[in-house]
Amino acid sequence: MKIKALKKPRGxxxxxxxxxxxxxxxxxxxxxxxxxxxTLMNGVCGFSAIVLASRxxxxxxxxSLIRRSGSMSSFAMAGFMIFLAMIADMLDGRVARLxxxxxxxxxxLDSLSDAISFGVAxxxxxxxxxxxxxxxxxxxxxxxxxxxxRGIFFSAIFYAMCAVLRLARFNVxxxxxxxxxMNFSGLPSxxxxxxxxxxxxxxxQTMPRFFGEAPEVIRFxxxxxxxxxxxxxxxxxxxxxxxxxxxxxxxHLFRGKKPLPVFILLFTIVxxxxxxxxxxxxxxxxGFAVFGVIRWIVVSLCKKRQPQPESTQA
Length: 314
Known about the structure:
mainly alpha, two-stranded antiparallel ribbon, two-stranded antiparallel sheet, 4 strands, globular
């Protein structure tokens, strides 16, 4: 008769050693160099936008190396840095898929960079811009000024936290298959940042150029940017965490063959962007945010009007 040897109870040290073993195997050894560098440039542009937004608008940048004459305020430069971060955000995923170097590390690094460039940077840019003009605009009621100040601070924090939640949810639900990236659940964080940054650039660059000789009109737009931009930033934060479906226009338009009217429309958009890039960015980003809401309302109304099939009882 064979006697089975009794197993010794595993002590606390043995359990800790077994639980620590899998962690050692998951240690990161190699990373994709080119996609990671592009993703880090996304974060660098976002950090640069924060630094530029912290400067006063009186600090202007000479653009003689880019064009013959003209200057740009620090707020406008911060907005353009957010746009450069968007370009880097579009390129890193494409490069990773082309070089077949997609990884979980790249996805996490991309989300961390997006949190800086499309979460913190737009919120900080909005709060610095509105605070600057709030100090220089003379409001009759001090209580109104205090309420606006608190609302600006709350809107900036709310937007930044919604962007972080949006990116965390995207990491959990993300699929590495590119064919699955045809729609977004909620407003993408780059598009939400584009809404804020485009309005800032429009206020800093386009409005003074068109209405520079009309101080009353400029003051009207200053009052509008102080009161409307925090509300728009707050609404952009809400749209990021909703389940409203937004199409991935890049994958829809540039994949496969398209009819001639679509090509003519894209060509017209390119010409309009060359004529006035600031106005084109504002219309594009704000229109994209509103388009998702309108389509969601229309689809919801159509579903309610459809007759429900009658349930038959056995």
